[in-house]
Design goal:
- The complex is a heterodimer of chains A (634) and B (96).
- The two termini of chain A are 26 Å apart.
- Chain A is mainly beta.
- Chain A contains six helices and 38 strands.
- Chain A has one domain: Quinoprotein alcohol dehydrogenase-like superfamily (Methanol Dehydrogenase, Chain A).
- With 96 residues, chain B is mainly alpha-helical.
- Chain B is elongated and about 65 Å long.
- Chain A: Keywords: Calcium, Disulfide bond, Metal-binding, Oxidoreductase, PQQ, Signal.
- Chain A: It is an enzyme of class 1 (oxidoreductase).
- Chain A: This is Methanol dehydrogenase (Cytochrome c) subunit 1.
- Chain A: One of its GO terms (molecular function) is pyrroloquinoline quinone binding.
Chain lengths: 634, 96
């Protein structure tokens, strides 16, 4: 780590920063506008979902249905660590910013000469953090703040050990580093930070260790905490606006963070948010989902357990919630509701223009809400084999449960679909605004589930259920294959334009392009390109290891590149990564993915593609050592 | 008395129709409060065989930990804003 206890800054630097620190208290926040502008440039990919709409959509067309067959590797980069590589790199101008799983090293790579690491910031972390990570030591990405007159651009990083760090984007030097989560109570960080205006939003992990979830806003320049909103407990801590859910009072309003729990169970009630964010500058709300309640044993926590499993619309300036819709009241299946939020503007069935939010949840339902007030527009099954609910009532918002597929003490429930891994997990999907298609990477996994009683001890796992997982009805249960699907979905009609089966879960998410090609990576180690209209497989490439991140694309020197992390891991990879054999180990994922090791091993890096593999190194003299030039070449 | 009668009636109906009267999430006591105990399970678990018996000392640890982190962060940030120098180790931050 570059930051020292006594900082590296000399007197001149000190003066500059002092001015910055004084200046931060005044002036309007315009940096979100700058981020919006930067995102419009095809040269950049400035945040997790490319822009605030989180559509993972690129208007570039150089790579299209015809040319995609010529896609070849242009260059690659190894991060030097194994374990799961989630998320996607950021690109700003001539620099690619890459992150790694634990120990969460950050790299800046020169796109003019990708062999060159401009800087790296490697933190020293307490290795104990690894022991309280439920599902591999993954991290979902970085955030970028474009800077202002006072402070230069910053890269923001979360660490598994609970720290949030701001680094100078040009030098990699640490500006500030603060504690958000405490591993001693089982609280870690895997989520990517998210920049809105001049603040950085940070989520939380640890519901499998009974961590009560919260989301926090920090001043991006100083790290000063601006607000913190919890998922459970008193309204002033959940932070509900005066008009919270006034548009949909039947969703519930006041005091439910306490009243839907028995006693103090809400204090260890989960609801962490480790997924993704989206933001609408017009409505000035950011959107995310809170996770599952703790423990998994439903019998130990009677009640609807609000506000876990909730789609939130919150004010980024103060964290106050304008609306909250609970998707899975009283969870019985670990359908952690943290999945991707994709924004779109479409006409509803009555022809009314709507600002929408579409969200494929773990519970097997794709929710589409009006993002200005939380109105429920559609809620359709991702696959017709979902059986815990017969469907969601749009007028009440209630999912009608099928008691046969609920879970409870002294009972082993069988053939529940989806499984705890969900029909959709952490993958960041995409939306094609021209085709009005959501391209979703889907899981096809079901399960048996039997809860057991257990005590809560801070810092220890607090799960209380034994699971067996296996392919869904459309897969091959005998051979434990056919665990995934990829589909094109219309949120208004509810129709699927096309759907294909995959050998394993399509875990990492998708990328859509105006070239009519959609991309995604697979756990068995391929990046694939399909025809956005038909789903036809147009191209693929065998990567060094399986993929659990989402593809991205950027333009550099007039050329379109597609980049993707490889490095299998995450929840589906825990058996392979930690060499586990008991099928119920890894919270039940080991059995479901026992065939994975026949197709891939661990890895860690980025592979970048272009037409014909053209890159700066197409001129072989680029980056060569020149003895005539002292010091570093170029 | 009324409650007992209702419960008995529900039990009879349940016996007659199988799972039809089990918790399906649609019977709400108030907006946002739709949970019901499953057949054979208690309305409240305290004092039953399913009582989680949470230790208040354990349950309060997260809140204490967050308070302590926030206090350390506040000292770091205050010194940073005041001097432009960031020091992580709070013990090394010079006193006023």
């Amino acid at each position: 780590m570059m930051m020292k206890n006594r900082p590296y800054w000399g007197p001149s630097m000190l003066a500059v920063t002092l001015a910055a620190a004084v200046g931060l208290t005044a002036g309007p926040a315009l940096s979100n506008d700058k981020l919006v502008e930067l995102a419009k440039d095809n040269a950049n990919w400035v945040m997790t979902g490319r822009d605030y709409n989180a559509q993972n959509f690129s208007p570039m067309t150089e790579i299209d249905k015809e040319s995609v067959k010529r896609l070849r590797p242009a260059w690659s980069f190894s991060t030097g660590v194994l374990n799961g590589h989630e998320g996607t790199p950021l690109v700003v101008g001539d620099v690619m910013y890459a992150h790694s799983p634990f120990p969460n090293t950050t790299f800046a790579i020169d796109l003019n000469e990708p062999g060159k690491i401009l800087w790296q910031n490697k933190p020293k972390q307490n290795p104990t953090a690894r022991a309280v990570a439920c599902c591999d030591v993954v991290n979902r990405g970085l955030a970028y703040w474009p800077g202002d007159d006072e402070v230069k651009p910053l890269i923001l990083r979360t660490q598994l050990d609970g720290h949030i760090v701001a680094m100078d984007a040009e030098t990699g030097e640490t500006r500030w580093m603060l504690e958000n989560s405490d591993i001693k109570v089982g609280s870690t960080l895997t989520i990517a930070p998210y920049v809105v205006k001049d603040s950085v939003i940070v989520g939380s992990s640890g519901a499998e260790l009974g961590v009560r979830g919260y989301v926090t806003g920090y001043d991006v320049k100083t790290g000063q905490q601006l607000w913190r909103s919890y998922s459970t407990g008193p309204d002033d801590e959940v932070r509900l606006a005066e008009d919270f859910n006034d548009a949909n009072p039947h969703y519930g309003q006041k005091n439910l963070g306490i009243d839907t729990w028995e006693g103090d169970a809400w204090k260890i009630g989960g609801g962490t948010n480790w997924g993704w964010y989206a933001y609408d500058p017009g409505v000035d709300l950011f959107y995310y989902g809170s996770g599952n309640p703790a423990p998994w044993n439903e019998t130990m926590r009677p009640g609807d357990n609000k506000w876990t499993m909730t789609i939130w619309g919150r004010d980024p300036d103060n964290g106050m919630a304008k609306f909250g819709y609970q998707k899975t009241p009283h969870d019985e299946w670990d359908y952690a509701g943290v999945n991707v939020m994709m924004l779109s503007d479409q006409q509803d069935k009555e022809g009314k223009d709507r600002k929408l939010l579409t969200h494929p949840d773990r519970n097997g339902i794709v929710y589409t809400l009006d993002r200005t007030n939380g109105d429920l527009i559609s809620a359709n099954k991702i696959d017709d084999t979902v059986n815990w609910t017969t469907g969601v009532q749009l007028d009440t918002g209630i999912p009608v449960r099928d008691p046969e597929f609920g879970t409870r003490m002294d009972h082993k429930a069988t053939d529940i679909c989806p499984s705890a891994m969900g029909y959709h997990n952490q993958g960041h999907d995409s939306y094609d605004p021209e085709r009005k298609s959501f391209f979703m990477g889907i899981n096809h996994i079901c399960m048996d589930w039997e809860p057991f009683m257990l005590p809560y001890r801070a810092g220890q796992f607090f799960v209380g259920a034994t699971l067996s997982m296996y392919p869904g009805p459309k897969g091959d249960r005998e051979n434990m294959l056919g665990l995934g699907q990829v589909k094109s979905y219309d949120a208004i009609t509810g129709e699927f334009k096309w759907e294909v089966m995959e050998r394993f879960s399509a875990w990492g998410g998708t990328l859509a392009t105006a070239g009519g090609v959609m991309f995604y990576g697979t756990l068995d180690g391929f990046i694939k390109a399909r025809d956005s209209d038909t789903g036809e497989l147009l191209w693929k490439f065998k990567l060094p290891s399986g993929v659990i991140g989402h593809p991205m694309t950027y333009q550099h020197d007039g050329r379109q590149y597609v980049a993707i992390y490889y490095g299998v891991g995450g929840w589906p990879g825990v058996g392979l990564v930690f060499d586990l054999k008991d099928p119920t180990a890894g919270l039940g994922s080991v059995g479901a993915f026992k065939r994975l090791q026949e197709y891939t091993q661990q890895g860690g890096g980025i592979m970048v593609f272009s037409l014909d593999g053209e890159s700066p190194f197409s001129d072989p003299s680029v980056g060569e050592y020149d003895p005539a030039v002292p010091g570093e070449p170029t | 008395m009324k409650k007992t009668t209702l419960a008995a009636a529900a039990l009879l109906a349940f016996a007659a129709t199988g799972a039809a009267f089990a918790y399906d999430g649609t019977n709400c006591r108030a907006p946002g409060i739709c949970w019901e105990p499953k057949p054979g399970f208690p309305e409240a678990v305290e004092g039953t065989e399913f009582d989680p018996l949470h230790d208040p000392a354990e349950v309060s640890k997260q809140g204490e930990s967050i308070k302590e982190m926030d206090e350390r962060n506040a000292r770091r940030v205050a010194y940073f804003i005041k001097t432009g120098e960031f020091i992580y180790e709070v013990d090394d931050i010079p006193a006023e």
